[in-house]
Input
Amino acid sequence: MWAIDVKNLRKDFRVQQNREGLGGALRDLFKREYKTITAVNEINFQIPRGEICGYIGENGAGKSTTIKMLTGILVPTSGELRVNGLVPYKDREAFVKGIGVVFGQRSQLWWDIGVIESFRLLKRVYRVDEQDFRKRLDELVDRLQLADILNRPVRKLSLGQRMRCELAASLLHNPSILFLDEPTIGLDVMVKAEIRDFLKSMNQRYETTILLTTHDLQDIEALCSRVVMLDDGNIIYDGGLEDLKTRWGRGKEIVLQLSQKAEPDFLSRLTMDLGVEWSMENELVAHIWVPFGRTNVSEVLGRVVGAVEIDDIRIIETQTDDIVREIYKAGHASADHAELAAGGKPSMPQAKPSEQAKLQASEPDKDLAAVKGSDGP
Output
């Protein structure tokens, strides 16, 4: 049985169209106009037990709407979904006992009472046995370093401290599935690393299934064996990270620090039949652009190393966040959706070395299932 099984899942929202001006406001009083927005468009995916899956996409792509349907907060317009074998919006009480949810911009902790009191309230909500609760709490406090803040009111915690407490709260009842919606938003590098290490160890120890949505692709690379990419409500990619790099990656760049000056024409002739492209940064630094699918780095280096004296070699790979950003920037997500759905391979234009250098230098860029719902996308 799949931990998460989604078939033709769709969610439409009916949104009022407000007309401009006083006259428009008066007309809206008597006759309102609406339009339908499709936030999730008949998507299909399955997640086996024990897998950590990244769920990524631009703002408004439909990630949080999907999570809210999977956690029972929203009712789908059409389609089927089962989580732990249950239909989330129908089997609410039995369903929420098997899931944990962390929304980076929402809290399940009570703002004005101590953290430990929130934990005890959640123990009663989930009807956790006292002995199991104590054992689980001790482990979480130790792993997440919460001992010094257990009696502090939530409103007096830093963002990093609160997120560690949110994680502990979502795991007190030992759920088999954990939904994380941007859990590291706004956190510093150290806290992010601690949370990643904790999630990885929990998955390995308890085989907890984790569905993670985030804009920080370093979270995806550190945790996920698989990524599902969403664009405008449609799944445009579902597979491993390495396959993503192979399918949509532009290639690799080799940077050579030469011992002595070499003529560009001589260097180009060394690899003439390999489909690579040379450029000179200066007299002693050469760049070789190696597109995916043409040849491999070892063959290029085999031709070059024996012919010129080299002091240093550096190989630059396109990072995952660069690939994803370029996909959306170029608009290939929408253009390639139909081809990907049919199992095809999208066509990405090959970047020149100068473009690749710019790419490398550039900066990378909700709610709780058991409590309040939401009506918007």
